[in-house]
Amino acid sequence: MEVVVAPRAKRSTFVGFHGGYPKIALAAPPVEGRANEELHSFLKELLGLPGRNIELVRGDTSRRKAVLLRGITAEKVSQLLETLKAS
Q1: Beta bridge partners of 58
Q2: What's the rounded mean pLDDT across residues 18-37?
Q3: 12 touches 38 (CB < 8 A)
Q4: Model confidence over 32-55: pLDDT tens digits?
Q5: What span, in angstroms and rounded, lies between the C-alpha atoms of 62 and 47?
Q6: Which of 4, 13, 68, 79 to pair with 38, CA 20 to 30 A apart?
């Protein structure tokens, strides 16, 4: 799954879609991997996955990141994000 992140937000939250990718605001600065750690924690809680099932595979220093999710289907993630978008 590819996502776009916006670090230094007041709180971590899904904010919608940007260029077709889910956009996630992160309550962490992009310093020393803190934003990446916050993204990992946010996805873990949002998707209900164990931490070992979430892996950042590309975009360590970029706002656009590729995340490998194990134990959940793409359809399930899409449904969840669409539900959050609608609320």
Answers
A1: 66
A2: 96
A3: yes
A4: 999 999 999 999 999 999 999 999
A5: 22
A6: 79
Assigned CATH topology for domain 2-86: Conserved Hypothetical Protein Mth637; Chain: A; (3.30.1200)
Beta-bridge partners for 3: 65
The Cα 20–Cα 50 span in angstroms is 26
- Which helix (DSSP H) or strand (DSSP E) does residue 35 occupy? helix 34-47
Assign 68 a pLDDT band (cuts: 50, 70, 90): very high
Residue recorded with tokens 């992160």: 26
State the DSSP code for 7.
-
pLDDT at 85: 84
List Cβ neighbours of 21 (8 Å cut-off, separation of 6 or more).
Answer: 2, 3, 4, 64
Q: Do the bridges between strand 13-18 and strand 64-69 make them parallel or antiparallel, or are there none, so unpaired?
A: unpaired
